[in-house]
Amino acid sequence: MSHRMKLLPPNRAVRLANRTCPYCGVDETERHPFTVEHVVGRRFVPKGSLNKSWALIVRACEACNAIKSDLEDDISAITLQPHIGDRHNDPLLHAEASRKAKGSISRRTKKVIGESHEQTSIEGKIMSAIDVKFEMISPPQLIEKRVHELANMHLQGFFYLMSYNEQERRGGFLPGPVGFVANANRPDWGNPLLRAFAQMTAAWPQQLDCICASGFFKLAMRRETETSPLWSFAIEWNGNHRIVGFFGDLVQAQAYVNAMPDLQWKQWNAGTRYRIEIPLEPEHDLLFASRFSEAES
Ligand SMILES: [Zn+2]
C-alpha cells in the first residue's frame, strides 16, 4: 500500500466517514457506538485557532474518544502556559492559559495546573570544597507516559488518514511500534539530541507535514526511503513541547539512536543531575519543512 502524501484542501476540515475506530480498530456496532472525533482536539489548541484551518475530523469509538479527551485536558493546559519568566503577548492566549491554569488538574500534583509549580532543592558540593544549596522552581510538568500516549494517538490518527481506503471506509495502523527518542520544552529545542535527530532524518523523503491551528499543532512524518520499514516523526504542541522518534522497524532505528550524542547531564551527587537548556536558532530548525503549511496555501 502506498502512503504517499495526499493533497489536503487548505483552510478547511477533512472529514472521514470511517467505519472502524482509528485508534483501536473496532468496528462500529450498537455495542460500540461512534462519536465525532477531532484528531487535533478543538480544546487542545487555543480557542478558535482551528477556524479556517486545515483539520482532521474522523469518527471514533466512545472509549477511545474519552481516553483522548482526558489526555488532552491537562497536556493542553500545561503546554499553553508561558515559560517561566515569559508571558503571552496575545491577550486572548493569555486569558485562555490563565483559565486553563485554574480549570485543569495536574495528574502529577493533583492540584490545578496554576498551582503545580514544583520545587526542587539541590544540595551538593562543587569541586568537593564549596557547599551549595539552591532551590529550583520548575513549571508544571508533563507526565512522560501521558505525553507518549497522546503522541501515539495523534500519529495513529494521521496515519489512518494517509492509509484510508474510501471504498472500504477504513484506514490502516502504524507499521510497527513507536519508539520515543526525545521530548523537550521550547527553551531546550536546541539540545544536541534533538538537533542530531533533525539532521539525521532531514533528507528522508517526507510523507506528511501538517501544520494547522495557526501553527499551534505540527506533525511531520518521514520515511528512511520510499520503501523502508522505518519511519521518523516529529510533533509540536502549542508552540511549547516537541516530541521526536521512530516507528515501524525499531531494530533498524537502533543504529540511528546509537549514533546520537548524549545529553551531557552534569551530576551534582548520586541522586541529582542537571543540564543547561539550549534554545534553537530558527535557521537551524529542520524538523518541519512546512511544504504544506497554511502560510503557503
Ligand atoms: Zn476505539
Order of helices and strands: EEEHHEEHEHEEEEHEE
Strand portion: 25-35%
Task: Give Rg in angstroms.
Answer: 20 Å
Helix content: 10-25%
* Nearest-integer average pLDDT: 87
Strand order of the largest sheet: 6-10-9-8-7
Name the poorly predicted regions.
291-297
Bound molecules: zinc ion
Coarse structural class: alpha+beta
- Tell me the domain tally: 1
**Which descriptor suits the 3D outline?**
globular
> N- to C-terminal separation?
28 Å
Largest pleated sheet:
5 strands, antiparallel
Q: How many helical elements?
A: 5
Concise summary:
This protein has 297 residues and is an alpha+beta fold.
Walk me through this protein's architecture.
- The chain is α+β, with helices and mostly antiparallel strands.
- It has one domain.
- 23% of the residues lie in helices and 26% in strands.
- It contains 5 helices and 12 strands.
- The protein has a 5-stranded antiparallel β-sheet with strand order 6-10-9-8-7, with helices on both faces. A 3-stranded mixed β-sheet has the order 1-3-2.
- Helix 1 (62-79) crosses helix 3 (144-162).
- The longest helix is centred in the middle third of the chain and has 19 residues, at 144-162.
- The protein binds zinc ion.
- Residues 21, 23-24, 26, 60-61, 63-64 line the site of zinc ion.
